[in-house]
Amino acid sequence: MKKLIEEFKAFALRGNVIDLAVGVIIGAAFQNIVTSLTDDIISPLIGLVAKTDFKDLALSVFGVNIKYGSFITAVINFLIMAIVLFTLIKIMNKAASLGSCPEEPAAPATKTCPFCKSEIAIEATRCPHCTSQLEEAAE
User: How far apart are the C-alpha atoms of 122 and 63, rounded to whole Å?
Assistant: First the structure.
């Protein structure tokens, strides 16, 4: 039992788990802001067109209410969250790439045989396909 507790402690206190927990808490708080924006500002503005609270729009089919206004409000919430997260990730990637220098392309590992046009190793002096003698590369 003691070993299990030690393993759990090592797992729970790793940096990634703590970062994830902080991210979830901040995400939940931000979701409340987006929900308030949608419920308190965007939905009433859209509701002006429908002359009612947008979330209250429903269709009654055989005594069952289909609340399409609430569904559309949830879709708007999702779209706002997706746009904000996309923008945030894009900004973070841009900031991460500012300090790094671009990678230089690797030296080619193959060359083309001038006789049979096969791809061969860069160090080859004879083509393994057509057995032609290749010119030595000047170093």
Answer: 77
